[in-house]
TrEMBL record:
Subunit description: Homodimer.
Pathway per the UniProt entry: Cofactor biosynthesis; pyridoxine 5'-phosphate biosynthesis; pyridoxine 5'-phosphate from D-erythrose 4-phosphate: step 2/5
Biological process annotations from GO: pyridoxine biosynthetic process
Designated name of the protein: Erythronate-4-phosphate dehydrogenase
An annotated GO cellular component: cytosol
Biological source species: Bacteroides stercorirosoris
């Protein structure tokens, strides 16, 4: 069996080489029809577009993407071609929640206003959005939820319309999948009309997909102060992102909200589990990310401890200094661990 693996998927080599006779490691953007023709399975990330152009005439019958999002897979083509595909639901949701927690704390410090006086609107309340809601409630925020598919399934009691979020929120954060069409279309969900409907000059946060927000509308909203700030992790047209926007945002990062080593390890494990289940085989593999360099955090407040564990300003400063390195900053991302990898000692202020 021949498997082609994106060479930026960590912690996979030892395990996959026990499963397949032949494994090739290739940069995600370099998967070509000629390369995949004789492959049986692909293990990919968002940088490989799995569509008819890549797959037609190939032997590929299984694709696992070590990501939550799957907008880079043409699912209708795969269905027609009998290619099974799997994503990794929830793998890096705690990592995105960590990004949000640190970001909210930084916003509080910069705005001179308590989070407990603010309302946050969460658009898309799945694996990520639910964890973000938990984080926001812990920080004392009032939380409004918007999720059209869930509202259709579960009824409207727990959900609010986008209009209500636009009127009542001080922070609006997007956690929807990218749907280019259909009843739940999210492509350019935040457009001029949306920004005009905002009442409280909120901060906009996007860690979903760049195309969920129309870049020019966002720029205009920043310039006219319809919104007070933006925190942007995902961009239209990555890696050639809009530099005017990058220079205007409070935090701008290179699509790394989900890049904790914990999230990466989960994604790799889930991709391998899907492959084994597809092949009806059992394999043993232990995937554990390395320990942090400083596993003991000493801080005077929980907020300070949180920012010591992960401070998105570092990623933002690096991207703002070197936007041309967008993909390299992702590929060489430093070790980042989630809370469970640390022990925190709170000390009295000196
Ligand atoms: N920046 C990063 O590193 C990461 C980005 N992501 C992105 O975030 C997205 C969300 O991730 P998860 O929460 O894990 O996905 P999920 O599938 O668990 O949740 C998405 C939620 O959005 C809701 N939704 C769908 N269409 C909607 C619409 N039109 N309006 C309101 N709600 C809608 C769904 O009902 C669902 O509850 C992913 O699809 C991915 O694109 C995910 C992980 C990391
Ligand atoms: O899981 C997702 O969806 C993401 O967006 C990932 O965190 C980023 O994935 P890659 O671009 O590294 O595949």
């Amino acid at each position: 069996m021949r498997i082609i693996v994106d060479n930026k998927i960590p912690f996979i080599k030892e395990a996959i080489e026990k499963i397949a006779d032949e494994v090739m490691y290739v940069p995600g953007k370099d998967f070509t029809p000629a390369l995949v023709k004789e492959a049986d399975a692909l293990i990919i990330r968002t940088r490989t577009h799995c569509n008819r152009e890549l797959l037609e005439g190939s032997r590929v019958r299984f694709i696992a993407t070590a990501t939550i999002g799957f907008d880079h897979i043409d699912t209708e083509y795969c269905r027609q071609a009998g290619i099974v595909w799997k994503n990794a639901p929830g793998c890096n949701s705690a990592s995105v929640a960590q990004y949000l927690q640190s970001t909210l704390l930084l916003l509080e410090a910069s705005k001179g206003k308590n989070l407990s006086e603010m309302t946050i609107g969460i658009v898309g309340v799945g694996n990520v959005g639910s964890k973000v809601a938990g984080v926001a409630r812990e920080l004392g925020m009032r939380v409004l939820l918007n999720d059209l598919p869930r509202e259709d399934e579960e009824g409207s009691t727990d959900f609010s319309s986008l209009q209500i979020l636009a009127e009542e929120c001080d922070v609006l954060t997007f956690h929807v999948p990218l749907y280019k069409e259909g009843k739940y279309k999210t492509f350019h969900l935040a457009n001029d009309t949306f920004f005009h409907s905002l009442k409280r000059h909120p901060v906009i946060i996007n860690t979903s997909r760049g195309e969920v927000i129309e870049t020019n509308a966002l720029l205009k909203a920043l310039e006219t102060r319809q919104i007070s700030d933006a925190v942007i992790d995902v961009w239209e047209n990555e890696p050639d992102i809009n530099l005017t926007l990058l220079n205007k945002v409070f935090i701008g990062t290179p699509h790394i909200a989900g890049y904790s080593a914990d999230g990466k390890a989960n994604a790799t494990r889930m991709a391998l589990d899907s492959l084994c289940s597809h092949l009806s085989i059992q394999a043993e593999y232990l995937i554990t990310p390395p320990a942090p360099e400083n596993p003991v955090i000493t801080a005077t407040t929980p907020a300070e401890a949180c920012l010591q564990m992960y401070d998105p300003r570092r990623d933002s400063e690096t991207l703002k200094a070197h936007p041309e390195l967008f993909e390299q900053l992702r590929g060489d991302y430093p070790l980042r661990r989630e809370k469970a990898a640390f022990s925190v000692q709170l000390t009295a202020k000196g």
